[in-house]
Amino acid sequence: MRGLTAAQADDVRQALHTAERRSGLRFGVFLGEPVGGRRHFAERLHAALGEESDSAVVLFVDPAGRGMEIVTGESARSRLPDGACRMTAMSMATAFSVGDLIGGLLYGIAALGEQATARR
């Protein structure tokens, strides 16, 4: 995970593992610049998960471009509707805006995992 220290990358991996274990969904994070449009790139990352994409959630964050996308598969979307993802994205953006990349990521992963677990 480019741009993170080893300890921060470990924290993100642990947060992903916890969200997956609790919710039963597949979570992924990509940090970096998109190739092409941000939304299209995030959707391609999600599609690359193949058979797992139906129950997957991908968080794409472009720190340099100051943007992010959350993409959910069809099954995941039933437990994480667009409104819930928007609210989480707004909270993440607030953390990012004050320079707290890791805090925003950890919050977003945990919040989405908890919301998906509550709707299980």
What does this structure look like?
The protein is α+β, with helices and mostly antiparallel strands. The chain has one domain (6-118): Diaminopimelate Epimerase, Chain A, domain 1 (Roll), CATH 3.10.310.50. The chain contains five helices and three strands, in the order H-E-H-E-E-H-H-H. It has a three-stranded mixed sheet with strand order 1-2-3, sandwiched between helices. Strand 1 (26-31), helix 2 (38-47) and strand 2 form a beta-alpha-beta unit. The longest helix has 18 residues, at 6-23.
Concise overview:
This protein is of the alpha+beta class. Helices cover 55% and strands 16% of the residues.
How are the secondary structure elements laid out?
Blueprint: H1 6-23, E1 26-31, H2 38-47, E2 56-62, E3 67-72, H3 74-77, H4 82-97, H5 101-118
Parallel strand pairs: 1-2
Antiparallel strand pairs: 2-3
Helix pairs in contact: 1-5, 4-5
Shape: globular
Return the structural class. alpha+beta
Helical segment tally? 5
Rounded Rg: 13 Å
Overall tally of domains: 1
Number of strands: 3
Give helix % range: 55-70%
The CATH architecture designation is: Roll
Major β-sheet, in short?
3 strands, mixed
- Output the helix-strand order: HEHEEHHH
Question: How do the strands of the widest beta sheet line up side by side?
Answer: 1-2-3
Distance linking N and C termini: 29 Å
Mean pLDDT: 94
CATH class: Alpha Beta
Given as residue ranges, the uncertain stretches (5+ residues, pLDDT < 50) are: none
Strand content: 15-25%
CATH topology: Diaminopimelate Epimerase, Chain A, domain 1
Organism: Nonomuraea insulae
InterPro entries: DUF5130
Pfam families: DUF5130
Protein name: DUF5130 family protein
